[in-house]
């Protein structure tokens, strides 16, 4: 044993992490997630295999399995990246959009900021989320993912209701739990999918509709005109 070995000197070996290797690993993970999103949207949950994702991403099957474990976890990772727009480990309510919404001037400004985020996230993630929800009935692993997604939507809905309550009470007869359920329903990815797909809405039209729906369904009635992202009306 060498006198300079870790055991001889009483020190532990240092683990060196190469920045280049970390960048390569991050790029590989991003490529796998992009390939998974493509496969899930094209083939559905049942029709997608880890092997097909690996081939699409140009990596070995063990690389996908070691990185994500199961197909359900791979789909959840793809959905999370789609919702956020990146793979940074930052909760949605800690992101800049939430800060902008929190500092908006009035209920209408808050609603517009929320609507913009909902529309952008839905545009990226609605299809993948529906893949998970539709597969949940026949697969316990993906059912757990679907439950997570619905719980996350409830947290976001409650946060929006709390934000509106900073500016106005709820309309007469509307209880807090019902208000959360209303926003939860408005955020349903199927609703975005149907309106922008079957009904031909553009995402900006959905965004304006969502902001207007938040105000009209939850807050006391006013004579205001429907709002859009380019307006800054305030509910009184």
Taken together, the total number of domains comes to: 2
Report the average pLDDT across residues. 88
Strand content: under 5%
Shape: elongated
Q: What is the number of helical segments per DSSP (H or I, 4+ residues)?
A: 11
**Measured distance between first and last alpha carbons:** 79 Å
| Percent range of helical residues | 55-70%
- Sheet of most strands: none
Structural class: mainly alpha
Radius of gyration: 22 Å
Give the topology string: H per helix, E per strand.
HHHHHHHHHHH
Uncertain segments are: 1-11, 223-236
* Strand segment count: 0
Structure explained in plain terms:
The chain is mainly α. It has two domains: 17-69, Arc Repressor Mutant, subunit A, CATH 1.10.10; 88-218, no CATH class. It contains eleven helices and no strands. The chain has helices spanning 6-9, 19-47, 50-57, 61-68, 71-84, 96-102, 107-135, 140-165, 176-186, 189-198, 203-218. α2 crosses α3 (50-57). The longest helix is centred in the N-terminal third of the chain and has 29 residues, at 19-47. The radius of gyration is 22 Å and the shape is elongated.
List keywords for this structure.
236 residues, mainly alpha, Arc Repressor Mutant, subunit A, 2 domains, elongated, disordered N terminus
């Amino acid at each position: 044993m060498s006198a300079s070995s870790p055991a001889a000197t009483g020190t532990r070996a240092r683990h060196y992490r190469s920045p280049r290797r970390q960048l390569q690993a991050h790029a590989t993970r991003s490529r796998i997630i992009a390939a998974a999103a493509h496969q899930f949207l094209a083939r559905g949950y049942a029709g997608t295999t880890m092997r097909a994702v690996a081939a699409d991403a140009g990596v070995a099957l063990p690389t996908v399995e070691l990185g994500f474990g199961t197909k359900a976890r791979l789909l959840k990772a793809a959905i999370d990246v789609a919702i956020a727009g990146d793979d940074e480990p930052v909760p949605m309510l800690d992101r800049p959009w939430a800060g902008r919404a929190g500092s908006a001037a009035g209920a209408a400004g808050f609603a517009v900021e929320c609507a913009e985020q909902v529309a952008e996230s839905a545009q990226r993630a609605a299809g993948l989320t529906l893949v998970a929800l539709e597969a949940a009935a026949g697969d316990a692993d993906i059912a757990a993912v679907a439950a997570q997604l619905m719980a996350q939507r409830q947290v976001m809905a409650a946060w929006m209701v709390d934000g509106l309550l900073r500016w106005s009470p709820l309309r007469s007869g509307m209880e807090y739990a019902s208000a959360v359920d209303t926003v939860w329903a408005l955020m349903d990815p199927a609703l975005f999918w149907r309106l922008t797909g079957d009904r031909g809405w553009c995402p900006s039209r959905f965004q304006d509709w969502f902001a207007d729906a938040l105000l009209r369904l939850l807050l006391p009635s006013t004579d205001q005109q429907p709002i859009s992202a380019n307006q800054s009306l305030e509910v009184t």
